[in-house]
Amino acid sequence: MIKPDGMSGNYTNRIKNVILESGFRIVKETIVQLDEDTAASFYAEHSAKSFFSSLIKYIASGPVLVMVLEKENAVADWRDLIGPTDAHKAKVTHPHRCSSY
């Protein structure tokens, strides 16, 4: 998923190119605008965490690009590609990864 900042910052093509250059195939993609209820359901595993409310507001703040990707060893390779889930850490430890844009 390319989140609202990535969509509004015109990083979509750059991110997709990194995905493709890393050997993934984009099977399907669609742009959606999540409402807060749908976002809360998607991120339910974080519901007890202090950042949950701000996460939901952020995800519902603009369109997101949802993609279905395919590749052998996709999960492990995806985790390596995106680096840490904390974007600030990713910018330092994985500056050329998707989550750093």
UniProtKB/TrEMBL annotation:
<dbReference type="GO" id="GO:0016301">
    <property type="term" value="F:kinase activity"/>
</dbReference>
<protein>
    <recommendedName>
        <fullName>Nucleoside diphosphate kinase-like domain-containing protein</fullName>
    </recommendedName>
</protein>
<dbReference type="InterPro" id="IPR034907">
    <property type="entry name" value="NDK-like_dom"/>
</dbReference>
<feature type="domain" description="Nucleoside diphosphate kinase-like">
    <location>
        <begin position="1"/>
        <end position="95"/>
    </location>
</feature>
<dbReference type="Pfam" id="PF00334">
    <property type="entry name" value="NDK"/>
</dbReference>
<keyword id="KW-0808">Transferase</keyword>
<keyword id="KW-0418">Kinase</keyword>
<comment type="similarity">
    <text>Belongs to the NDK family.</text>
</comment>
